[in-house]
Amino acid sequence: MESETRSWRLRLQLRPQLPPPLRGGSPRARTVRFVAVSALAGCVVAAGAVGAAGPWEGGQRRAERARAAGPEADRDERGGDPVRPAAPPVLAGLGGRATAPLPGREGLAGALEGLLKDGALGAQTSAAVVDVATGQQLYGADQDTPYTPASTIKTATAAAALAALGPDHRIETTVVGDGDTVVLVGGGDPTLTARPAKEGASAAASLKELADATARGLKARGKGRVKVAYDASRYSGPALHPIGPNENIAPVSALMVDEGRLDDSDHGPADRTTDPAGDAARKFAGMLHDAGVDVDGDPAAGRAGGSAERLASVSSPPLAALVERTLTNSDNDIAEALARQTALASGQPADFEGAAGAVTARLEKLGLPLSGARIADGSGLDRADRVSAAFLAGLLARAADPARPELRPVLTGLPVAGFSGTLSGRYGADAGGRGLIRAKTGTLTGVNTLSGTVVDADGRLLSFAFMTTGAASGEGAQGALDRLATTVAACGCR
Predict the structure, then answer these.
(1) Which letter does DSSP use for residue 50 in this model?
(2) Could you write out the DSSP letters of every residue in 413-442?
(3) Is 58 left (phi over 0), alpha (psi -120 to 50) or beta?
(4) Phi and psi for 293 in degrees, rounded to 5?
(5) What distance in Å separates the CA atoms of residue 262 and residue 257, rounded to the nearest whole number?
(6) What is the pLDDT of residues 176-224, one digit of tens each?
(7) What is the value of pTM for the model shown?
């Protein structure tokens, strides 16, 4: 017990510094504030070095676990002793979060309205704060007016996909044999990888493993020479996103490897192939040759006949892991795949229009405020997207509903302020919200949004959304949005 007490005191000494609670904060509330930061039923992310932004496994990053367990921690800039920055738990059980005092409208208004007038924000701003336990909107400012959400729309895409398919769904890539031809059939998994296979529950499906299994199947059937064809027909319509060729997204295809990236990256901008399906098939043919099967000619687009025999298949990580990766890294390629998978599950064409319609229909079934909203794509790269702050905050509250456990990855995938994903470079070491806020960012030229969850100073779990359009400086707007979220985190506001 004595050692536990010393450990607790150490955590308090290392905790990030917050502004004092506003209006009604108490010593007990401040203690609660550092114990739990963002509540999701049944999940806990351990304290430790959480700077790496890799995929999640069951709510904790693989890289985070490795660094926490490894013998060496990060060293400071001067090359001194290992430094293990303290990160408070950012996921905790709901527990008493529904019985903690509610912040008041007037208190929240007093805390937020001056910040919403910050000159760093654009001419159009909107805000919403929602109590997660009840779904009650506690504060709003132009909250019902739809604005361009940028990448925060990915929370909606993710929720729709999870509602349509469930968190355990996996996307298959298959190979079938049709006479002397094998056909590589894309199922829509953009994370299928041609790189060396990794282990773990969230490891990407391996093209090499698929080629090796295909070679074994062919040899068992006495076939040592084949032609290779590829089938990407599961998706339809234009492959190119309306923004045109762009380093932030590859042409959307049911068959691709490594998101069509032409370098070794796994997130962020990168040069992309213009022919994802053809490139994947050519790599597959090379791997098939390496496995001892001769390949005649170059792969060509085609479809297998009705008598084709299934030879091999590989599956993507569970949909929950794909959602978490999408939100943590703001991954446009996976987001568009999630939208098309929703369309397929809904019997709609797997193109931009069909996917948008299917996502919208799923969101309507979740009872979210969609008046004036428009879903144009899955990633938020399309400026035609329109949703309100009330919608974004309400969506996150719905994702925390114990009656909708399938939506929980929408929350577990949100980046942690100052530590992971698209928030790793924001909320510096002295920032009040560092480690205490989980939020999805949204950034286009002139558009900045932030939507997430936080436990306030009294221990109440809240969701929030702040949207702005027309800011002169993106960096300035981001700082202003971060201050708004930090104020909600620090607020006792009664």
Answers:
(1) -
(2) TSPBTTTSGGGTTSS-TT-TTTTT-EEEEE
(3) left
(4) -110, 125
(5) 10
(6) 999 999 999 999 999 999 999 788 778 999 999 999 999 999 999 999 9
(7) 0.83
